[in-house]
């Protein structure tokens, strides 16, 4: 895991990054600015249980591509989940919580993941481990109203104007942050590369 100090506010942005693109950078920039983060960890997962493992580029390639894109020194590219031997977010967050007490973590995700968040293993545990910031993505703006996660934790949603103090709140708590959106997606980039 990247080095952190007690009292820091750190965003956790996990994903396959297969491949990483400027849409990921835009989410990172919005999260850094609106959440007041000291760091944002791009947690490049070795595998995603909800996606085709055969479609994943090798981890080393994805890490190198992320390093080239993530030029802001506050963005820390890491693949420590491979060392943990898990690709389940709930287990990863448990590990982080135990290993890094005194650090204020926020789970950061694109709104495109909100629609299927209830399919993640122990998704309700994830929502009660750290505050969550959902960053708007094209075609996903309404998912924060209709997703199972949004409906289940509707009582825990705070206004995006309070995003800067999200780290001070006890989970479950989440916010939906609107802002500039990129139409880029890893799926579309892979499809274009296959043509």
TrEMBL record:
SUPFAM superfamilies linked: Nucleotidylyl transferase
Keyword Lipid metabolism: no
Leading EC class: transferase
Domain Cytidyltransferase-like, first and last residues per copy: 12-191
Gene: nadD
Pathways involved: Cofactor biosynthesis; NAD(+) biosynthesis; deamido-NAD(+) from nicotinate D-ribonucleotide: step 1/1
Protein name per UniProt: Probable nicotinate-nucleotide adenylyltransferase
Summary of the function given for this chain in its UniProt record: Catalyzes the reversible adenylation of nicotinate mononucleotide (NaMN) to nicotinic acid adenine dinucleotide (NaAD).
Keyword Membrane included in the entry's annotation: no
NCBIfam families: nicotinate (nicotinamide) nucleotide adenylyltransferase, PRK00071.2-2, PRK00071.2-4
InterPro entries (UniProt xref): Cyt_trans-like, NadD/NMNAT, Rossmann-like_a/b/a_fold
Record keywords, A-Z: ATP-binding, NAD, Nucleotide-binding, Nucleotidyltransferase, Pyridine nucleotide biosynthesis, Transferase
E.C. designation(s): 2.7.7.18
Catalytic activity: nicotinate beta-D-ribonucleotide + ATP + H(+) = deamido-NAD(+) + diphosphate
Pfam families named among the record's database cross-references: CTP_transf_like
Protein family per UniProt: Belongs to the NadD family.
GO MF annotations in UniProt: nicotinate-nucleotide adenylyltransferase activity
